[in-house]
UniProtKB/TrEMBL annotation, chain A:
The system is composed of three essential subunits: KdpA, KdpB and KdpC. It comes from Candidatus Cryosericum hinesii. GO terms for cellular component: plasma membrane. Belongs to the KdpC family. It is found in: Cell membrane. Residues 70-89 are annotated as: Disordered. This is Potassium-transporting ATPase KdpC subunit. It is a single-pass membrane protein. Its main location: membrane. NCBIfam families: kdpC (TIGR00681), PRK00315.1 (NF001454). The gene is kdpC. The chain crosses the membrane at residues 7-25. The lineage of its organism: Bacteria, Pseudomonadati, Caldisericota/Cryosericota group, Candidatus Cryosericota, Candidatus Cryosericia.
From TrEMBL, chain B:
Part of the high-affinity ATP-driven potassium transport (or Kdp) system, which catalyzes the hydrolysis of ATP coupled with the electrogenic transport of potassium into the cytoplasm. This subunit binds the extracellular potassium ions and delivers the ions to the membrane domain of KdpB through an intramembrane tunnel. HAMAP family: KdpA. This is Potassium-transporting ATPase potassium-binding subunit. Keywords: Cell membrane, Ion transport, Membrane, Potassium, Potassium transport, Transmembrane, Transmembrane helix, Transport. GO terms for cellular component: plasma membrane. It comes from Candidatus Cryosericum hinesii. The gene is kdpA. The system is composed of three essential subunits: KdpA, KdpB and KdpC. It is found in: Cell membrane.
Length: 190, 562
């Protein structure tokens, strides 16, 4: 009984320390010193919030670069992947359909291979990035839809490519929202 | 590709080893009550807390008293988290107005977080309020990890001491684990994470309109503080459903690397703590090497097969057949495989990619890592405890070979220790196989698997292995949010946790009471031969117990895919 009382005291105090003081301290410091990051790295265009730099979005218009397929249609209030196994018939079918779509939208040959990231669903369903190859493959389509010179659009892709950490860890990638915002700016400037 | 892989993996392993040596020595100083570089800052907090708790710094408990304190403390944690989830709709800190959690789901989650498993049959952002995440999940992330470290330290003390019936005091160990280790590490890590983009806010979901005019709702919340401790404490339960694959948990490759490093650090450090406290560093190094070798072999096999890609995708027209299904572009296959290997060996269960969508052989390795009982580094504390149970078993087998009573560190290992080791090593697998068998015999439980055939079978095996190993990761295609899985897996988690902890403490008590003997003729436990003997025993016990499900699940799928 004495031990139960002691357990209650210890538990009560540790709940306050680890469950209230600790997270609120982190929240306080984060909000005071890096509130932009702490609140979701939101991106503003002309005074309107148009997305988060870190969260992918659904892009359908031919004049924008498209992101990766998403198992939850980019529902950023409910993340997750497809969880289809490597031998799944559903996986094979969706990938084949996406490949056909990518080929026809971008005027590729019927037997052209397509970068994996552009036709497979990401883990979070919210992947903000695509590979540089996937971006370059869309340059012709985007340039044509906007009446821009392809080399200018291609240049934009190169400028917006991020390298792996220290050149070793992770993969090269292009943030689709940032690229599309840069693209809109390029179209506005005469 | 091989070169690229080695360049990414080898420096990581070197840095991990160096970090583990230093942290290992630091932990030894902390738990022996010696002065450390943090003492000037947190020493006062430690003394203040112990005074409030009514505990003297030099208080001692027998193993039974230690176990009673631990069980009472954990039972309170379980009840508190269970009730909190049922009451969250009437409590503050719930800007999304989420309702009470379903009874079976709440029971599963409470057991899961108390046992350091962090299996999640629920989806974080749509089920748990901010208050529940902080006061419930975050609290148990700390307390279950601190409990694990305490048990490991108590067992080490048992081997260090002689002719005594005390193994330290649970309340002192618990307090030190929190004040000197977990809280400082989590605090630093969470702030680094925020600086990279991990969210930490009390604001509700952000609603916005995209450039294409579509509405988007983005869930945010106090994630960084929880992500940090779920890695440092090898808990693994995500703030968001997608766990560390979610860009708001791990925004870039740097944070990903940091998260893998921090989940391995304490488990890899504890063998060195063991050697340090014994005053015989080689003993700790031997255990570390056995763990590192098994870790590296598993990682190598996984990388080889995952980087070979998926033949089915290659045939469909995917360049190189690269398996990016269920992976994030910023991480890619190499980092995702490193993460998957690290999270399954350490009983963490956090994921940066969807394990369900890995190719079959890496999937097999992940199940293997969990079924050997989470001893390849393992969960904080319990990993070392599990490995020491294997050491007892190995020395027993060696003893049979040379016809002598086995000894470890000058302590004779007798039937009592052997019995405890066998209970600890066989309890969880037996419970796991019973649960899996039960699941396969109930049609509705089989129907919970999203995939069919061998892969569907692996989903169920994975879930049971994950629960019994207190891992918590999933082949997430399985819909485990049913009363059958919620209750069954919760019971499995309890067996997995306490069938390691209680035998560990019992052995601590019995070896502490023994004299140190110097018989002269003993099998060296620092030799290369011992390291390989140990690896052999771990592999045989883990491998053979699960041989048939592993063949029918992942291996069969691998053969069909070729």
């Amino acid at each position: 009984m004495k031990e139960l009382k002691r357990a209650l005291i210890v538990f009560g105090i540790l709940v306050v320390i680890t469950g209230i003081i600790y997270p609120l301290t982190v929240t306080g410091i984060a909000q005071l010193t890096m509130s932009h990051r702490a609140n979701g790295s939101l991106v503003t265009v002309n005074g309107h919030v148009v997305g988060s730099e870190l969260i992918g979005q659904q892009w359908t218009s031919p004049k924008y670069f498209h992101g990766r397929p998403s198992a939850n249609n980019y529902d950023a209030s409910s993340s997750g992947g497809s969880n289809l196994g490597p031998s799944s018939a559903d996986l094979e079918k969706s990938v084949a359909e996406r490949i056909a779509k990518v080929r026809s939208e971008n005027g590729l040959a019927a037997d052209a291979t397509v970068p994996a990231d552009l036709v497979t669903a990401s883990a979070s369903g919210l992947d903000p990035d695509i590979s540089p190859e996937s971006a370059l493959l869309q340059v012709q389509r985007v340039a044509a839809a906007r009446g821009l010179v392809p080399s200018a659009v291609e240049n934009l892709v190169t400028v917006n490519t991020r390298k792996p950490f220290l050149g070793i860890w992770g993969q090269s990638r292009v943030n689709v929202l940032e690229l599309n915002i840069a693209l809109d700016k390029l179209s506005e400037t005469p | 590709m091989l070169e690229k892989t080695l360049v990414a993996v080898l420096p990581f392993i070197v840095v991990l080893t160096i970090g583990a040596v230093f942290v290992g020595r630091y932990l030894a100083r902390v738990f022996q009550g010696q002065h450390t570089f943090l003492t000037p800052i947190v020493g006062g907090v430690e003394r203040g807390l112990l005074r409030i708790f009514g505990v003297r710094q030099d208080e001692e408990q027998t193993w039974k008293q230690y176990a009673v304190s631990l069980l009472l403390f954990n039972a309170l944690g379980l009840c508190f988290l269970f009730i909190l989830q049922l009451l969250q709709q009437w409590l503050p800190g719930n800007p999304q107005h989420l309702g009470a959690v379903r009874l079976d789901t709440a029971f599963n989650a409470a057991v899961s977080f108390m046992t350091n498993t962090n299996w999640q049959s629920y989806s974080g952002e749509t089920t748990m309020s901010y208050l529940t995440q902080m006061l419930g999940m975050t609290v148990q992330n700390f307390l279950s990890a601190a409990t694990g470290i305490s048990v490991a330290i108590a067992l080490v003390r048992g081997f260090v001491r002689r002719s005594t019936n005390s193994i330290g005091c649970f309340w002192v160990d618990l307090t030190r684990a929190l004040v000197y280790v977990l809280l400082p590490m989590a605090l630093v890590l969470s702030l680094v994470l925020v600086s990279q983009g991990t969210v930490q806010t009390l604001r509700p979901t952000v609603a916005l309109t995209t450039l294409e005019g579509q509405a988007q709702r983005i869930a945010v919340g106090p994630a960084a503080s929880q992500v940090a401790i779920k890695h440092v404490g090898t808990n693994g339960g995500g703030f968001f459903n997608a766990n560390a694959a979610h860009p708001f948990e791990s925004p870039n490759p740097f944070t990903d690397l940091l998260l893998v490093f921090s989940l391995l650090l304490i488990p890899a450090a504890l063998p060195f703590t063991f050697g340090e406290m014994l005053g015989d560093r080689k003993q700790g190094t031997a255990l570390f090497l056995a763990m590192l070798i098994m870790f590296s072999i598993g990682l190598g096999i996984s990388l080889h097969y995952e980087l070979a890609g998926n033949p089915a995708l290659a045939q469909a027209g995917v360049a190189g057949g690269v398996n990016m299904e269920g992976k994030e572009q910023r991480f890619g296959p190499i980092m995702s495989t490193l993460f998957a290997q690290s999270t399954t060996v350490t009983s963490t269960g956090a994921v940066d990619s969807m394990h369900d969508s890995f190719t079959p052989i890496p999937g097999l390795i992940m199940v293997f890592n969990m079924t050997v009982g989470e001893v390849i580094f393992g969960g904080v504390g319990v990993g070392l405890v599990g490995m020491l149970l294997y050491v007892v078993l190995t020395l027993f087998i060696v003893g049979l070979m040379i016809g002598r009573t086995p000894e470890y560190l000058g302590k004779k290992l007798e039937p009592r220790e052997m019995l405890m080791a066998v209970v600890g090593l066989l309890g969880p697998p037996i419970a796991m196989l019973l649960m899996a068998g039960l699941a396969f015999s109930i049609p509705s439980a089989v129907a919970s698997a999203a995939n069919t055939g061998s892969h569907g079978m692996t989903e169920i095996i994975y879930a049971c292995a994950s629960a019994a190993g207190n891992n918590g990761s999933a082949f997430a295609g399985l819909n485990a949010n049913t009363p059958f899985y919620n209750v069954g897996l919760a019971l499995l988690m309890l067996v997995g946790r306490f069938a390691t902890i209680l035998p560990g403490l019992a052995i601590a008590g019995s070896v502490a009471a023994k004299k140190r003997v110097q018989s002269g003729v003993t099998f060296s436990t620092t030799s290369t031969l011992f390291v390989f003997m140990l690896i052999f025993v771990v592999t045989i016990v883990g491998g053979l117990t699960y041989f048939s499900p592993l063949v029918l699940g992942p291996l069969l799928e691998f053969l069909k895919l070729r």
